[in-house]
């Protein structure tokens, strides 16, 4: 992976695993973009790791917008999500077997 990707976006990089990954990829010379809620931690990391790009993002939803989960009912489609993609089927396509 480290040779393939040159730009890394880490969501939640102000502490823990996210911060550790940001430090690791930065040390490998990658372009690292971090996000998090705590602006003071984002500022400290950008001061410590030159070239790091940081953006404050708060992904917490108020309780009225938090999805509820019921174990007794099948999941309902969310109006905010796209339908699951299914590959097209072709009436003329048939499985092929390897040559003998």
Order of adjacent strands in the largest pleated sheet: 1-2-3
Shape: flat
Question: What number is the mean pLDDT?
Answer: 79
> What is the terminal-to-terminal distance?
37 Å
- Helix/strand order: EHEHE
Beta strand count = 3
The helix tally amounts to 2
Overall radius of gyration: 22 Å
Q: Specify the biggest β-sheet.
A: 3 strands, parallel
Residues in β-strands, percent: 15-25%
Concise summary:
This protein is of the alpha/beta class.
Question: What characteristics describe this protein?
Answer:
three-stranded parallel β-sheet; single chain; 100 residues; alpha/beta; flat
Structure description:
The chain is of the alpha/beta class and 100 residues long. The chain contains two helices and three strands; from the N terminus they run E-H-E-H-E. The protein has a three-stranded parallel sheet with strand order 1-2-3, covered by helices on one side. Strand 1, helix 1 and strand 2 form a beta-alpha-beta unit. The longest helix is centred in the N-terminal third of the chain and has 12 residues. The protein starts with 6 loop residues before the first strand and ends in a 44-residue tail after the last strand. The mean pLDDT is 79.
